[in-house]
Amino acid sequence: QVQLIESGGGLVQAGGSLRLSCAASGRTFSTYGMGWFRQAPGKEREFVAAITWSGGNTYYADSVKGRFTISRDNAKNTVYLQMESLKPEDTAVYYCAANLYGRRWADDVLYGYWGQGTQVTVSS
Known about the structure:
- The N and C termini lie far apart (40 Å).
- By secondary structure, the protein is mainly β.
- It has strands spanning 3-7, 10-13, 18-25, 33-39, 46-51, 58-60, 68-73, 78-83, 92-99, 111-112, 118-123.
- Strands 2, 4, 5, 6, 9, 10 and 11 form a 7-stranded mixed beta sheet that branches. Strands 1-3-8-7 form a 4-stranded antiparallel beta sheet, with no helix packed on it.
- Strand 7 (68-73) and strand 8 (78-83) form a beta hairpin.
């Protein structure tokens, strides 16, 4: 069992930066690949970024590639999402989750142990 708690969201102006954190409890955290998803009002949840259990491979949605960076610290049971050059269209609730199968990183069906989410609002 893994419990996830996101933090670091907030209000930022366009062009600004934020770093989201996802703290995990449970001894099995380091065995899971982790992903970040987001959901804007009236829209479906969408994939943002993912990282393998070792941190050796990362994956990004085209919309955030080059602006967002996912990383993890298994010693701290934490995964991060560094967001740069934020745009109003990045406004959403951001969720972290554990990929239970180590594949199909953009498919939220393969994820479990979702956090409660953290709100990111980017003003223009």
